[in-house]
User: Which sequence fits this backbone?
């Protein structure tokens, strides 16, 4: 048994490429985090993935081999084509798996990321319901980012500033455009920055609870994760509104990547598709063109690694896709 | 005279058949594409719903191809579909396009005949006796083709979750439907239908699978047209779910003819009755039926319900609010997807994948 266990001991890489940030984590058989990376995409996910691979490999000891790789997040397919993934999983499932393993008793998961906000309801370790913002991105990380930039404060300061608010102002939270108009009005009539930032946190939390969580049975214990969980102001506002403390996991920003890594660990691929960390030193680029064969005018994207087309997508008729490798779900 | 009609699921196949058999010249608008949507969005009022924009795009493209007579269904309030014909008429006129408009009424009433009186008088001059004599046969042909398309689509919904090679069913369905499209007589149509069924059955299937059962409910355009709903039906099938829906052309036509109450409509009456626990009166369009169907499907042991609606659709917005309650009361997961013009195919895929996975977990846990 002992020998067998050594044989099946492996390390697994989870990659979560979101709209704003890219997260990577390597775990071992015992779910210990061996290395982690959290970096901004700056609108270039491909470069971010390469950078991420480079920095995560520098944090691993040279002998660590990767026995399975999984991708998640809104650019999960792009990432999978690039790095060679054994598993591609949607972010809702990935986030749920990470929570269920760490906190089996949890009943609600709040996840607020760059463009997405989700709520996942768990009962007895099983997902029973979930919701995700569809038509509106109000209250997500990118809007907070934008407002912080407008006020000339860093996003890291944002939360602590909100905590200092004495009389948080009322800000319309239904839509980012309304919220911004309201904030500018409040600033022009002389409210302090702390009170405005505090007010924004309150209104975004109300928007999230009223829209994304509408009609959902929010029971504690509640886990709060995703990039926005770093924001003290939002965290406090949520706790105040729900009158219950929230659990913020240690790796709150990496939960999607952790979930992906855990899922591929369960699959235990016989031989991993992972192309290795050397990828970070190869030339990778995407090239887009508009196909003019039919009225659909598909925007086709080709992925090139070392000047060779390794994958292709975006074509509704799948004419260009023949050459690319098939990534299993 | 050149007749045209909007795209809606397989509607063009049987509309074409009617015109063809009656020897009336016709134009089938190009398949709904990004260009169609762009044209529709450009010319429609900002806050109108997605089906309106796409149908308008179809008309513009068809008129540019030389069509001069538009045939469109109409309905009554409170759904905006009731205003589609009037508003689209005004827009197309503003664009300087020339055409004649025929509204097929939702119910055959005197008022409806009056509404089309002027146009029909005009048309009579242009139609030959041959056209008029052949028209009943054309209708029969159209009806048979519609039923053939529906039979093939229903079969594909059963085959898809068991297919071994992802996407094979869809390819076979396309082939089968084009066979139906090409048939010219009732006899060849019957052959095409049998052949189509055989093609679909040839799909490599794994019969050991027990697929999830999911019902699609909601606003009829978004439920019936894969361009509007970004192929939700196909996506769910390929994720391994057997999908059912009750919005078909035959259901809606039979309803407007007030026929077959005992047969087809009984299902809809059942849904309507079930919705009474939540709604005191008929909200209009498919609202009550979306709610009622979710309840009935829960009782029938379905695993989940996917509710489709265009952004800002009044009847279905009402339904979606009530459905969150229905889901809790009847213990059936309901996923509402709101569709609009933006590129949300990736997001829809994510939501559907997560939904199907959740249902699979739920089934395993039970």
Assistant:
């Amino acid at each position: 048994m002992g020998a067998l266990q050594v044989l099946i001991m492996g390390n697994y890489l989870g990659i979560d490429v979101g709209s704003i940030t890219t997260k990577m984590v390597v775990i071992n058989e015992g779910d210990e985090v061996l290395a982690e990376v959290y970096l901004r995409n700056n609108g270039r996910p491909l470069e971010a993935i390469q950078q991420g691979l480079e920095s995560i490999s520098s944090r691993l000891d040279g002998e660590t081999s990767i026995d399975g790789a999984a991708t998640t997040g809104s650019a999960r397919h792009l990432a999978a084509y690039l790095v060679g993934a054994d598993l591609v999983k949607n972010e809702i499932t990935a986030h749920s798996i990470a929570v269920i393993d760490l906190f089996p008793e949890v009943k609600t998961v709040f996840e607020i990321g760059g463009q997405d906000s989700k709520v996942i309801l768990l009962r007895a370790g099983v997902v029973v319901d979930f919701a995700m913002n569809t038509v509106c991105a109000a209250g997500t990380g990118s809007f907070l980012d934008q407002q912080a930039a407008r006020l000339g404060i860093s996003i890291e300061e944002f939360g602590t500033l909100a905590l200092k608010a004495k009389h948080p102002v009322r800000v319309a939270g239904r839509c980012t455009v309304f919220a911004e108009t309201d904030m500018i009005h409040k600033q022009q009539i002389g409210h302090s920055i702390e009170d405005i930032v505090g007010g924004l946190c309150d209104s975004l939390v109300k928007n999230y609870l009223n829209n994304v969580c509408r009609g959902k049975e929010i029971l504690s214990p509640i886990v709060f994760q995703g990039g926005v969980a770093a924001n003290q102001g939002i965290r406090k506002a949520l706790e105040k509104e729900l009158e219950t403390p929230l659990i913020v996991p240690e790796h709150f920003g990496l939960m999607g990547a952790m979930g992906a890594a855990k899922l591929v660990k369960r699959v235990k691929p016989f031989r991993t598709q992972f192309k290795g960390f050397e990828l970070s030193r190869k030339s990778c680029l995407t090239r887009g063109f508009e196909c003019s064969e039919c009225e659909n005018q598909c925007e086709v994207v080709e992925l090139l690694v070392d000047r060779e087309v390794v994958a292709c997508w975006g074509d509704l008729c799948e004419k260009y896709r023949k050459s690319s490798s098939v990534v299993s779900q | 005279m050149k007749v045209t009609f909007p795209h809606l699921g397989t509607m063009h196949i049987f509309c074409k058949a009617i015109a063809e058999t009656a020897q009336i010249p016709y134009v089938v608008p190009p398949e709904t594409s990004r260009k169609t949507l762009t044209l529709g969005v450009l010319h429609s009022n900002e806050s109108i719903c997605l089906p309106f924009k796409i149908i308008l795009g179809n008309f513009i493209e068809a008129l540019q191809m030389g069509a001069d007579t538009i045939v469109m269904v109409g309905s009554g309030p409170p759904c905006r579909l009731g205003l589609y014909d009037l508003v689209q008429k005004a827009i197309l006129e503003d664009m300087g396009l020339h055409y004649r408009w025929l509204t097929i009424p939702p119910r055959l009433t005197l008022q409806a005949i009056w509404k089309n009186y002027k146009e029909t008088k005009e048309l009579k001059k242009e139609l030959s006796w041959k056209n008029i004599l052949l028209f009943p046969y054309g209708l029969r042909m159209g009806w048979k083709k519609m039923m053939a398309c529906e039979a093939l689509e229903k079969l594909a919904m059963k085959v898809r979750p068991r297919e071994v090679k992802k996407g094979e069913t869809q390819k076979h369905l396309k082939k089968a439907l084009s066979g139906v499209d090409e048939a010219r007589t009732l006899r060849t149509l019957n052959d095409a239908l049998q052949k189509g069924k055989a093609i679909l059955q040839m799909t490599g299937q794994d019969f050991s699978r027990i697929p999830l059962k999911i019902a699609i409910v909601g606003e009829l355009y978004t439920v019936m047209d894969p361009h509007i709903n970004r192929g939700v039906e196909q996506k769910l099938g390929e994720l391994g779910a057997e999908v059912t829906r009750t919005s078909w052309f035959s259901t809606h036509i039979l309803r407007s003819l007030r026929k077959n109450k005992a047969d087809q409509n009984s299902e809809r009456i059942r849904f309507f009755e079930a919705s009474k626990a939540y709604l005191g009166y008929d909200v209009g369009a498919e609202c009550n039926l979306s709610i009622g169907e979710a309840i009935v499907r829960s009782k029938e042991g379905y695993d989940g319900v996917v509710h489709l609606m265009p952004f800002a659709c009044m009847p279905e917005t009402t339904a979606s609010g009530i459905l969150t309650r229905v889901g809790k009361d009847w213990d059936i997961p309901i996923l509402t997807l709101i569709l609009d013009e933006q590129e949300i195919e990736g997001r829809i895929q994510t939501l559907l994948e997560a939904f199907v996975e959740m249902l699979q977990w739920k089934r395993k846990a039970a």
In short: Chain B touches chain A through 31 residues (CB under 8 Å). The beta strands of chain B are 3-4, 26-27, 69-73, 100-104, 212-218, 241-245, 304-310, 334-339. Chain B has 17 helices and eight strands.
